[in-house]
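Key idea: predict the complex, not the pieces.
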Amino acid sequence: GAVVSQHPSRVICKSGTSVKIECRSLDFQATTMFWYRQFPKKSLMLMATSNEGSKATYEQGVEKDKFLINHASLTLSTLTVTSAHPEDSSFYICSAGRTGRLTNEKLFFGSGTQLSVL
Amino acid sequence: AQTVTQSQPEMSVQEAETVTLSCTYDTSESDYYLFWYKQPPSRQMILVIRQEAYKQQNATENRFSVNFQKAAKSFSLKISDSQLGDAAMYFCAYRIQGAQKLVFGQGTRLTINP
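Result:
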């Protein structure tokens, strides 16, 4: 089956630094990828929709300058948390669906990244 | 805006018994998809079952089945013969036809008692 790889799985950084999280579709092309944030024991909240070759679409309340998204190829989207602060600590998950297929195709999820900002 | 509501933060069931998780949703769309996802302690999201809104027949996947009531906008998940490996967070999710964006419910934590 299709696989989405997310890296790193865990990252600890100092406050004020930037952290980059990668989401790769390993055996299919994905025009669109999604970035979610999940707080402990809470649901997944969509942060943004990453579009290959164009600007990401951010959900209301998500800071575009804080969470930079780049989708430079059909198999890679990156989320950069800039000038991270402790309140950015969270579990981040990406998902992707195949390009060119009917949109009733299921989405595939990465294994997530736990970000801890000290 | 579409919303998904799971009113049971936690549920527990004895091993081998049956449990039903509730989900309601709100939408003005007529064509959409509903999903149940499982998130075990590894936190990897796993698709359990999917239902197309245009289908009247309830979806089933082995021990997992749904009760889809379109008029009531209800989409419950029944797990039969519960197993210890079923312990996880379960999320109900919604997606409209023609889009890939998922809207998730708050989640239900399911505990299986041996």
